[in-house]
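We emphasize that the prediction below concerns an isolated chain of 99 residues; any contacts that depend on oligomerization or on bound cofactors are therefore not represented. The input was used exactly as deposited, without trimming of termini.
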Amino acid sequence: MGYSISLGSDMSQAIKIDSRFATAQETAHILGVPSSRAQQLVRLVEEKESANERKRDRKASKASSLLGSKAHSIRGSKSKASHASRKKSTRIKASKAAR
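Result of the prediction step, given as a token string:
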């Protein structure tokens, strides 16, 4: 996978980078962090990511269930409103006919 980075306003001086990003372990090694501490940090990040995924899943599930129940209640209220409207128009017709 290549990335193109332009330097300045002259697009003819683009640099193509074909390397991958450094891993957490490689970065820790270069910075002098003990590998055990690097592993702890990796586990913390992974736990946080999985917790965020679970939270997102719960929110999505809740939103879809709310949307489903709201759509059902909206459909029900529309039918009630149209029924009331028909009753009203029937009353108006009946009162006009009585005149």
